[in-house]
Please model this.
Amino acid sequence: MSTNSATFNGKRSFKLMIVDDSNIMRRRIERSNKFEELELVGTAGNGEEALELFGKTDPDVVTMDLTMPRMDGIECIGRLVALKPSIRILVVSALADKATAVEAMEKGANGFLNKPFTDRQLNEAIAELMR
Amino acid sequence: MTVAGTERRRQLATAFIGTALTLVMGAVLIWGFHLATNMRANITALQSASALQNYPEEIAHQLNTLRDRLEVRAYSGQALSDLQATVTRFDQELKKINTGGNSESPQLDRALLLWHQYRPVLDPVVAFAGQPYVESDSAGSALSREGRKHYAEVKQAQLFAADNARPLQAQLASLASTLQHSSSDAADHLRGLLFVGVIAALMLAGAAAWFQRARNRQERVARDATEQTRDILKTVREGFFLLDANYRIGSVWSEALTRMFSRNDFAGLSFEELLQNLVPAATLSTATKYIKLLWGDRAHENLMKSINPLGQLEITMDNGHGSKETRYLQFDFHRVMGPEGVKHVLCSVGDITSSVLLARELHDSQENANQQLDMMLGMMHVDPLQLVSFLDTAETGLKLVNTILREPARTDAEFRKKLNGLFREMHSIKGEASALNLKSIASRVHSLEDMVSDCKKRPELSGNDFLPLVLKLDDLLAHLRGVREMASRLTAIKDTPAGIAAQTATLSTTMPSMKLSAATPAPPAPVATPERGAPRSVEDLRPALQSMAERLAHDHSKRFKLTMAGLSEVPTAYSATIKDCLIQMLRNAAVHGIESPDVRQANTKDAEGTVRVEFRKISDGYELVFEDDGVGIAPDSLRTAAVRKQMITEEEAAGMDTRATMALIFRPGFTTQDGVSMDAGRGVGMDVVARSVYALGGKIGVSTHPGRFTRFKIVLPPSEAASSTAVA
Model:
């Protein structure tokens, strides 16, 4: 993945956290990740779990679903950015309306990817995120 | 960047050359001033030196005069006083030359040296103030002692003068000559300097002219560029403007914006103000947030493009004619980067209304095609005869709807009554369409039903509320025609036995154009398409008329049976008219003629009424008899109604016999209904029936017995098409 290495600019490995209430989607994102530099440190099924996992693993990159039980993605993004301003968050959501995307960006998300997506779209979105 | 750099270099060069030339001019002027001052001093010195040249000789001469005076014992005071004046002046002039900037002149030095030797010799002479002579009687005038001394000093001075006057004079002449040279040189210098000054001035003027020209050229280029920019902004179809860091629109924008937003005060307007009152509050809030995000460091172009909430913005604004207009605008945003991050956001706005509407039309047409396909597939499962029967029933039902719409109405109660009637008919058609799985028809009727329900919910009703219903009904009728056509094609494809094929092929009948009461605006008349197959036999309508009778009986809580005879005899040419007449009369009979079972029984009549239809060929044409055993028509009530309607005067009414009275019901606009209760009288739509009969050259008559029956008899002339009655 020469382009990817270029994107990551030879930095040390990054820690990835996947937040999605769907087990299938979590595995899908995990399998789609082609970046060797991106090491999965944990997955969470809702915002609360994500915050707990964040405390333990301190991830650099997060993929975030929006519609989740207990604590939704929008709130979780706000909390994570407050805890770690340098964190990079890619929203992966089936909510196609632009208002939601704008709100997520406003809270501090760095990218937006609509479900369903292809592997290529996901990797491009992550590459864009790390730029 | 390159243009700006060149411009900067040019400006620097201009400043440098201008400064250099000005400095040169300044230096020339100062130096010239200095030279001029020196020259002035030289000239003064020259004048002095020229004057002084003669002094040594003058002094020598005056010394001689003084000695001569002393020798002849003449008065010497004047000579001494002249000498004193000359010496003093010489001394002063010499000192002036010396202090006048010529102290370094060797000639002057030598002259001064000589003078300094000369002066001590002269001083005692000029300082003499005593009496040079003594008077004695013996010797006469003789030199006094001090006179002798004075004489000796004069002689000594004369001797010195004889030796040194000439050298001193030579030195002074030489000094004058030197000063002259010096002045001449200075004049040369000044001339040279002035020449340089003139050259520098000319160069400065030339440079100024050159730079002015260059500047003019630049200004022209800048003016051209501004003009081109203005032309572009005036002509381009997109709206363009820049947003600053305060989200306000800059002073330059394209004129397309004026057309899009119907305003022209864009400069300084905030983006929020631009969209205010045009879009819902939620959209405005999202748009504002989005614009703010564009200034953030996380806003990558691709990402921002993908979440642009204004990619297809629906705005509603006044169209200038008092009504609202919906338009679709597409906003695109591009960040303009400066050295310190985002400098502006370039916003382009396109009016995509036509493409949005086109896309919608395409979508609708696709939907329609899909629906037609579904319909076709659905129809393939329906028995052709059943389908034909349904279409007939639906058509009959819709004609009934038409009749209901035509009924005049003025009050709210009347309108509500109409709505209830419409609703019943719609519901029944929908039920049958659903049962046959004809979804496209069912959904259309359903939406019409919804509209009727909406109308019912309104607090007040007027004729205008029925306009959308009429339009929708028209759409439904058009769809039914389409279905008929499709059914005939389908039948052709199926290649069914000739009888069924013929039957289906002749399904189509001409739709009578709908005529509405004055309270309801007329809809566009459905296009009659007689070429789509010959009119069907009325006999085929038998099931549809039966089911209509049942429905009417049920809806109006009546009981009656419908008997029909001879309908197969109806010539093709008359079938449409006969059909329309039957529908109209059946409705009249069911609603107004036949009494409710209670009333009938109270009047010792059979609880179940009878409506009899009989068609037969007679010697000179055909005859249709339509009879019900209902309440009949009271001539008095007809007369009263006609007077009330001001169709006839009371006198005329009084003079009318029963026959003339009964003819009133065929007059246009006549109804016994005063208010609108649908059960108030008879004659609804009979004028239409009569007109269509007259149109065929026929006659219509009515006979009645109040409380017993009403009988309409229609006589039609022989038809050329009589032989071609449709096959049952």
Summary: Chain A touches chain B at residues 98-99, 101-103, 105-106, 108-112, 128, 131 (CB under 8 Å).
